[in-house]
Amino acid sequence: MKRVTGLGGIFFKAKDPQALGEWYRKHLGMDVSEWGGVVFQWADDSATGTTLWSPFKESTTYFAPSTAPFMINFRVADLRALLAALRAEGCDVQDKVDDSEQGKFGWVVDPEGNKVELWEPPARQ
């Protein structure tokens, strides 16, 4: 079974996400969207896709139960199969799975307490 297929996004806490986004826009030329992040488009020999960069409010609970100020999102080929395999391997897999027009999302906590987001993009990506 194929597991991680690429980097889906980098998410991190910021004291002032809007001001920080403006700094990245001004100084690094990043195209920060109104929602506060950047969508990087890419293509390789077999697929096209996106990778997100997004600062979150410092008070976000989205990264919980992790206390880390960041969360990495990895693209996966078959979320439900991977979550089942991780559970069977004794990993700390979160019970919740989100299914939306953006794809399927699940989470696992690594041995150091970092929450890792796993994302199965919709078929069109």
Automatic annotation (TrEMBL):
SUPFAM superfamilies: Glyoxalase/Bleomycin resistance protein/Dihydroxybiphenyl dioxygenase. PROSITE patterns: VOC. CDD domains: VOC (cd06587). It comes from the Bacteria. Residues 6-121 form the VOC domain. PANTHER family: GLYOXALASE (PTHR33993:SF5), GLYOXALASE-RELATED (PTHR33993). This is VOC family protein.
